[in-house]
Amino acid sequence: MPALWRSTFVLVMVLLAISRPSLASQPTGNGTEHTITTLPIVIWKWEGIKFPYLVALWILVSWLCKLVFQLNPGLTRVIPESGLLICIGWVLGGIIYGADKVQTFRLQPFTFFFYLLPQIVLDAGYSMPNKLFFGNLGAILVYAVIGTCWNAATLGLALWGCWLGGAMGNIDTGLLQLLLFGSLIAAVDPVAVIAVFEEVHVNEVLYILVFGESLLNDGVTVVLFNVFDAFVSLGGGQIDAVEIIKGIISFFVVAVGGSLVGVVFALLISLLTRCTKNIQIIEPGFIFVLGYLSYLTAEMLSLSAILSCTFCGVCCQKYINANMDERSVSTVRYTMKVFANGSETIIFVFLGISAIDPSLWVWNTAFILLTLLFIFVFRFIGVFLLTWILNQYRLVPLDFIDQLVMGYGGLRGAVAYGLVLLLDENKFKEKTLMVSTTLIVVYFTVMLQGITMKPLVTWLKVKRAAVTERTLAEKIQNRTFDHMLVAIEDISGQIGDNYMRDKWNNFEERWLYWLLMTPIARKSCDPIFNIFHNLNIKDATSYVNEGERRGSLAFVRNESKADVDFNKKFGDDLSEMRPYIMTENMGPDHVPVSSILRDSVPSVCLDMHEQDLKMRESEDFDAHHLLQQHLYKGRKQHRHKYSRKQLEVNEDEHEVQEIFQRTMRSRLESFKSAKMGVAPPKISKHLKKDQPQKMPNGKSTDNSKSHTYGDEDFEFSEGDSASGCEAAGGSFPMRAYRGAGIVNPAFMAEMDTMDPMPPMQQIPSWLAEAEVDSSTVVPSQRAQLRLPWTPSNLRRLAPLRLSTHSNDSFVLADSPATQEGISELPPPPPPKDGQDQGTHK
Amino acid sequence: MGTTNSTLSKIPNVEELMQETGFTPAHIVRLYDRFEALDKEKTGLLRPQDFGAINRLAMNPIGDRIIGAFFSPGQETVDFHSFVRILAHFRPADKKRPKDPSMPEPVNSRTSKLKFAFQLYDQDKDGKISRAELLQVLRSMLEMQVTEEQLESIADRTIQEADLDKDDAISFEEFRKSLEKVNIDHKMSIRFLR
């Protein structure tokens, strides 16, 4: 706690130091320019730099506040961060006021709506869980549209009733003005709500309902506000039925139109990211610029900017994540969070600072208390009413406790404050009262409801979000469930949600993917495959970590055993030669290569001959390729080169990775032999991959707690054609250098695998040696104990290595150059194409 | 109400059926209409071809398996009662109805829902999902997007995840364990015929 105050104090001192000169330097500022008598070495140029400097300083100060809180985790556990930020805003504001005797800094509506809000909305849209959102879209829309209108109307009417009854004394207002006030304060604020709900981890349906509602109803409330604002301007006498109908129409046009603008921009972004492969560095920038433009465009067309930005984020996320490079995606993700979180912090601090200003405050106890009461009560009534209607149609009804939490989660926030400041004082006599009431409402809801939310959720035993580790089985099963439900709906002859979802999925796969995704991304967008890929990566990482932790993953540069990831290798050395059509055309059928050998075509024959040649001179080749592979490059100068366009100038990176791969490989190899106590099976086995090879590996009571399965059927890569692939791949560079034609590594690899020749010739040196080695290894107890990781995990690792000619995205993405390489090459002779397809699975 | 009653009277043992499946008379009537619409030959029995005539079902990757689930082994046809009983698997579980311990487990309980899903995989009815069976399902659901090898490693991994007794196949117990965290009632229910 003392640390907190000390740092706060320092902040404030810094602030004052800045704000004082700003006032003091004004008279002297002009003087310096005229009265130069001698060349000044350094001059004090505060005036010119004042504005941007203050902005930057304020951002710094706000963020430092956040930092200060995070040093006191005990504090944030009790009071939500948003509340704390407001508190510190009060303190800062008090100090500024004390120093300046006037509140110099205030949150201006323009700043709020154009510089602070857009990134929050865009981030919320972009990180929206899409499936949940669209799955509950109906409910969310009901809450956001009808709920907001309900809140606005009831509050306005109730206040009007009380005003007519004379409860508020004598204030100058009227029905329309109160309705306007109701509409601006109706919206639940996403920033405040998310800040609170994220901390309490409620279940996902409740979360998406509150989140979606708060996001969309911001848009709705702005629209409502504009409509009522126009009504107030028109004045009570002018309003007839036509105007009211116009108002309703305008409401829908603005809301729907805004959403459409967002969708259009989402399409634009997706299309754009299709072709930004070559400018990866600014690729993420497009997302932000276009997202911001979607906001501004909607604003320009006087459509709902918030809705536009939200839908832009929601709709484009899937496609841009698939289109862009992985690194760009994480850049976008993090930058988005930086912006959103940053402006959130600034908003709350300024909400606090703005309050410390006597000119802002008019106290009317009845009005303020009644507003608080009505907001609270009508929110609950609205939620219960709407939920009751929705529950008639929902498959999974919302239970009573969920409703309570939803009602209680009606936090108001900065949007209301921004809107109330927009009120025109000439038309709206009681603006000051409205502003102070809004501030009170915001403080009350954010502080009190925010603080009590967590205990309430615990006390009511609200279903929390289950922390699930997504497994492949779950993913596959979910997919099966989807198909099953659609089928059952078809059979029972009804058109339900599942039917609609299925239709949409078909449409999306057929048209949208084609339109919005790069061909490569389209291939890898299957969720089951993705989760598989991610799990593999996770295993690989944990394997390495575990190995490093035990200190046994040293770099073993055993040449004869080492192996190389040739996908990587080719990417480096042969990018211009590698025809990548292969991976694209891999069909499911597997034609024996021998048949292709017979009717082979000249161009391929050339390769074939070379292959034979290579077989005969294998030692020579081995030696050569050993050199080729294992001579590490010296450190290059350009390691330190700076480039604006390219991050990855460091080619040694590949080498490091290569070394890593090699080490992994030899590790795996030695673990296996140690563990099994048997020689790895012969290469010739790889055709039988339908039966997983069961290895007798004694009592494998491994100490890995989480992975208790799959010990017996530890199967390493020799069980698959990949090893053959590696065998050929190892010596491939040599071949490629000799043959000037197009050489297809993958094709070659397959040839080797299936080649009817005696297998020993194709066995690469490392594997051959491994066999000899491991046959001599006695599987000692100690060896087993020292295994850094269990075979089951190695096996889980294996698929990643196995699919060396996979077409998954990251392999492709890693070698963008190859794509271009293709177009420069003469088109391969057609028969070869045929073979490609045939040979490859 | 008149039509409802007249339709109901056509169905034998309708009371029992409603008791067993938990469907309301309105549901039964809707389903009966649907059944008759599917039953082109008016035999009172559905054959696999009748299901095959549903266009959209043909595009469903596991459509055949679902159709197969309607027919008990060795039988070529399904009557209305079995039809309704199968569909009752997909009725949301009702909390309001008091649990009667004397009654057998309702057909829309979690276990029987899972059993239904399980038998879609287990085509040879040996109580286990073998690697080959899983591979078949995966192949039909992933089709062209993934290579055969990747498919196989996905299948291997899936089995490893679930396989507790290391017999390289997924038994029903293991199947249930692997889906412990999934809310089956949400995933395997249709907002039925409101």
Automatic annotation (TrEMBL), chain A:
GO terms for biological process: regulation of intracellular pH; sodium ion import across plasma membrane. It holds the Pfam family Na_H_Exchanger. The chain crosses the membrane at residues 48-69, 78-98, 110-128, 140-166, 178-198, 205-228, 248-269, 281-298, 334-356, 362-388, 400-420, 432-451. It is found in: Apical cell membrane; Early endosome membrane; Recycling endosome membrane. GO terms for molecular function: potassium:proton antiporter activity; sodium:proton antiporter activity. The keyword Flavoprotein does not apply. GO terms for cellular component: brush border membrane; early endosome membrane; recycling endosome membrane. Keywords: Antiport, Cell membrane, Endosome, Ion transport, Membrane, Phosphoprotein, Signal, Sodium, Sodium transport, Transmembrane, Transmembrane helix, Transport. It catalyses: Na(+)(in) + H(+)(out) = Na(+)(out) + H(+)(in). Residues 1-24 form the signal peptide. It comes from the Eukaryota. Residues 76-459 form the Cation/H+ exchanger transmembrane domain. Its main location: membrane. It is a multi-pass membrane protein. Residues 671-725, 805-841 are annotated as: Disordered. Belongs to the monovalent cation:proton antiporter 1 (CPA1) transporter (TC 2.A.36) family. Plasma membrane Na(+)/H(+) antiporter. Exchanges intracellular H(+) ions for extracellular Na(+) in 1:1 stoichiometry, playing a key role in salt and fluid absorption and pH homeostasis. Major apical Na(+)/H(+) exchanger in kidney and intestine playing an important role in renal and intestine Na(+) absorption and blood pressure regulation. PANTHER family: SODIUM/HYDROGEN EXCHANGER, SODIUM_HYDROGEN EXCHANGER 3. This is Sodium/hydrogen exchanger. It comes from Salvelinus namaycush (Lake trout). The lineage of its organism: Eukaryota, Metazoa, Chordata, Craniata, Vertebrata.
Automatic annotation (TrEMBL), chain B:
GO terms for molecular function: calcium ion binding. Gene3D superfamilies: EF-hand. Signal peptide: none annotated. Keywords: Calcium, Cell membrane, Cytoplasm, Lipoprotein, Membrane, Metal-binding, Myristate, Nucleus, Phosphoprotein, Protein transport, Repeat, Transport. This is Calcineurin B homologous protein 2-like. One of its GO terms (biological process) is protein transport. SMART domains: EFh (SM00054). It is found in: Cell membrane; Cytoplasm; Nucleus. Residues 109-144, 150-185 form the EF-hand domain. Belongs to the calcineurin regulatory subunit family. CHP subfamily. PROSITE patterns: EF_HAND_1 (PS00018), EF_HAND_2 (PS50222). CDD domains: EFh. It comes from the Eukaryota. One of its GO terms (cellular component) is nucleus. The keyword Secreted does not apply. The keyword Transmembrane does not apply. It comes from Salvelinus namaycush (Lake trout). Its main location: membrane.
